[in-house]
Amino acid sequence: MKMKDNKIAILVFTLPAICLYTFFLVIPIFASLGLSFFKWDGIGPLFFNGIQNYISVFVHNIDSFWQSAGNSMLFAILCVVIQLPLALILALVLANGVKGESFFRTVYFVPVIISSVIIGALFSRVYNPDYGLLNTILGKIGLGSLKRMWLGDPKTALLAAFVPQIWQFIGYHMLLMYAAIKQVPSEIVESAKIDGAGSFQIATKIKIPLIKPMLEVCLIFAVTGSLKIFDLMYVLTPNGGPLNSTQIPTGLMFTELFTNYSTGIGSTIAVFIVVECLIFTFLIQKTFKEKIV
Amino acid sequence: MRKKVLKIISLLSIGVISIGLMGCSSGSQSSKGDAQNGPVTLTLWDIWNTSSDGNTAPFNKAVEDFKAENPNIKLNVVGQNSSAYFQKLQIALAANEGPDIIYCQGAGVMKPFVEGGKFQPLNSYISKAGIKNKLIPGALDNFTFNDKIYALPTTISIGTLYCNKDIFNQYGVKLPETFSELNDAIKTFSSKGISPMLVGGKDQWPASMYYDILALREAGAQGSQDVLNQKASWDQPAFVAAAKTLQGFAQNNAFNASFLALGWDEAQQEFLQGKGAMVFNGSWVSSVVEANDSPVKGKVVAMKFPSIPGAAGKDTDFLGGANDCFAMSSITKNKTAAFTAIEGITQDMAKESYLASSGLPAWKLSNVNSSKIDPLMVQQDKYLESSTGMCLWFDTSVGTKGANAHYSLTMKLLSNNISPEDFAKESQAEINDAK
Amino acid sequence: MTISNKIKKLLLYIVLGAVAIIQIYPLVWMILISFKDNNEIFSGNIMGLPKRFLWQNYVVAIRDAKVGVFFLNSVKVSVLTLFFTICLSLCVAYAISRLEWKNSKTVLNFFLLGIMIPSQAVIMPIYELASKTHLLNTHFLLICVYIVFALPTSIYILSSFMSGLPRELEESAYIDGASIYRAFFSIIIPIIKPAIVSVLILNFIGVWNEFMFAFVLINTDSLRTIPVGIQSLVGQYNTNWGPMAAAMVVATIPTVIIYTIFSGQIQNSLIVGSVKG
To answer: Which band of pLDDT confidence, cut at 50, 70 and 90, is reported for residue C183?
Structure first.
């Protein structure tokens, strides 16, 4: 391999993407970063504000910011603990070869495809206190005392809102893990079988270790995705839910940007979200100790 | 080390350039069309796209009529999604890319755009065209800031207590004309398992309407307006009394049982299904109630919300007013043509909406056969004609930020998480005193 | 097969089947309500079969939400976005994971930054940029925006797959005198097909269902995409959910078809035998 070829090749391969990406994404995010130091109503002139916005958000805790940050981190933890293991199990089972593998693979992915508006509408019906599926079932199996006003009760709204969101993207991670598992060379699996290993052992000792890079990818996606969640939460519990119990940073950011006409504060929250994701990604990468290159 | 410094410098300069791009907006004028010569092209943004909206057909008809009567003005009508309209408008106006004719709402909703200099004052055009006496008196109040008028209204909506006659007859309850009759009705219905008054608490704004009408009754029209215009404080006996009454309603089952968890869509449906006796909401509900497939068509009567004995408000004071309107962009090149369009469309739409039962006209109508109008609308129109005072919806008056605060505090009140006194105090702090 | 094995298998299928019902129910529910009217949807008959099949909901959907025109626009935007995203991300992922150079990790992290950005934060700056460069209200702008949002995840997934491949693959090609480009096209890409398909599927869904940018950046009906059309059915004070569900059914079918067709491609691993022997 000649070094010169190498350098040109690298440029050819990466430059177009880098240019496009810088123009349409990097410059805007830096503009957002810059805006966090200004006071702007999003319409008229800008006023330089120093770090006032940061103080308002982090020190004065406006809009109960830290509570919403806590909510989104709780959500991230729940996703990792519930979504990923379920996705992994499904991926392993399907990749192992079951009858109707294609059918199940298609069906399990369906929630990812359906728009958040429908999922939100469906779960609003399920959670309806009077005739919703959940309370009806609880009543029928004798657990009527557990009936609640799910999305209207500040004590239950947060977890109730989390359930559809955790559930919706199981298929997403399942697909990625499934693709990774399918890449595991079949000879390795075959020879392990010949050596007498059971499916469970093959799964845990061979397949999972070999798909570690993809697990890291899924973990990063799950965490950053859940820290940035917006759509479904907005549909299920508009305006931050009962007594602001389901508020999340992206919701606050949206409110500050477009309802309160405080672009500076909204941008500050955006910066927080980006930094938060950076920190978690860094931690995950360190834990896996396997850098990509 | 040098590499790091270089990196930081380049990042900072990107940031500075980006701010520079944001700060000085020159905007593009390319969509505005020819100024003087030849046919004029105007762009109009509205929010009426779907047939489920009572205003869509009237708006489309108004546009058609205008186009037919003004062949030299090319009108490019762009319907936007109502749910995200103001977000898009804000972004577009900030970059000077907005339309010539802009759908907006009055008072606090319009205020940021007015203060940002994005809307054109229309006073000279209005006086030249002699419009003032073609409008219902007071119709321009919500669009006037510092004596400058920024928009023309289409329709007026008022808060009405819709009552299902059949349910009242079934249980032998008198339609409430006084406050004690209202309380009696509430007591009877809740003891019989019918929701007395329906609320879509999850969406928050329907719930705040109940507070607003009580406050209006306690403080009167002028008194309420003073608070909303920041000339008086929320923390006053009248507003505290209203909060107390509202909380009392919630505690005594005056509302549907799970009102905290139901959205407006669902609550409205309960009314349509005959599961609730009354609902207090705006005139726009009329078109849904009187739609051909509505199970309660013809069974609903519009009552004035009763006055509260001993309080300043009369039952002929109304919550609501002219809200839907069209404004003109301050940077449009065709101001005269734009005004002609605004005048023509708003006036025509006022008539068509009235005919379609989706709103009361903000303009005086001359040749409308009242036998063609739905009785529900005629009733409300009569109320409007004999009104002694109007107070615009509280959430529109205080603007979106104040509205959110108002919603949260009202919800706290309804779920017994705040005392009426603290409600008034915090409302003042978060709505009027907040910068 | 022993009895206990049979029982285990049966249990497995029961569980799989139960999960399948839970997963597919939203789609079924959506199709059901597309035939109902608001009365039935809200209280009469939420979960069951429609009493009458209101085909006119579909007519309203196609008329009001202009699903026909918007469908073509969505197809155009999606196909172009996907094509360029895959091309660009394959190139970058290959450079990062298979070629050796000093700043490869920096570039990967540079792209990874994109995963962490909440889209609502950058919508105003992007709009400003677009306005200054006269790109507003063009498919070109929308496609570019979608591409840059899709690049981070695509590059990350592809480079993850690529770095798991043994080095020997290209070594043998280089020894035979092939250039880097040759190795890229003829060897790596075919092997990485399952990853490419996954990226294709995931990006397609993201682009097809995207609302915010499609709404803000496009102003002409003839250029609009489906999600905007669907959302336009939400009225100012009242929404008819039947036609809205109908519009969504029309919008969702292509996604299901594409997924079904392409996910089959993931099933086959192509590494077998390419290196050993």
So the answer is: confident
B293 part of contact set with chain C, CB < 8 Å: yes
Q: Chain C partners of B84 at a C-beta cutoff of 8 Å?
A: 212, 215-216, 231
If you average pLDDT over every residue of chain B, what do you get?
Answer: 89
Mean pLDDT of chain A: 87
Shortest CA distance from C157: residue in chain A? A217
CATH homologous superfamily of domain C67-235+251-276? Answer: MetI-like (1.10.3720.10)
Helix/strand/coil for A261: coil
Contacts of A277 in chain C (CB under 8 A): 115-116
Residues of B contacting chain A (CB within 8 angstroms): 11, 14-19, 21-23, 86-87, 90-91, 93-94, 112-113, 115-118, 201-204, 257-258, 260-263, 266, 400-401, 404, 407-408, 411-412, 415, 417
Which of A43, A130, A238 is the closest to B258 by Cβ?
Answer: A130
* Whole-complex ipTM: 0.88
Distance CA A46, CA A31 (A): 13
Residue B26, pLDDT > 90, answer no
The subunits that touch chain A, with at least 3 C-beta pairs less than 8 Å apart, are B, C
* Contact residues, chain C to chain B, C-beta under 8 Å: 37-39, 42-44, 60, 64-65, 123-125, 127-129, 131-132, 134, 136, 212, 215-216, 219-221, 228, 231-241, 243
Domain ranges of chain C: 67-235+251-276
Say how far residue C113 (Cα) sits from the centre of its chain.
20
Instruction: For residue B78, list chain C residues with Cβ-Cβ distance below 8 A.
Output: 219-221
pTM of the model: 0.89
Distances (CA, A) of C231 to B87, C65, C205: 14, 8, 17
* Domains assigned to chain A: 66-292 (1.10.3720.10)
- C25 to chain A: which residues are within 8 Å by CB? 122
Of A34, A43, A45, nearest to B90 by CB-CB distance is: A43
The helix-helix angle for A212-227 and A263-288 (nearest 10°) equals 160
Cα four-point dihedral sign B52, B53, B55, B59: negative
Touching check for B92 and chain C: CB below 8 Å? yes
| Number of residues that this document lists for chain C | 277
Nearest to A120 by CA among A15, A229, A209, A195: A229
Nearest by Cα to B321 from B186, B77, B187, B158: B158
Give, as one character, the DSSP assignment of residue B172: T
Cα–Cα distances (Å) from B172 to A158, B169, B183, B184, B386, in that order, read 43, 5, 15, 11, 29
Residue numbers in C near A213 (CB within 8 A):
160-161, 163-164
Cα distance between residue A274 and residue A267, in whole Å: 11
In chain A, how many H helices and how many E strands?
Answer: 17, 2
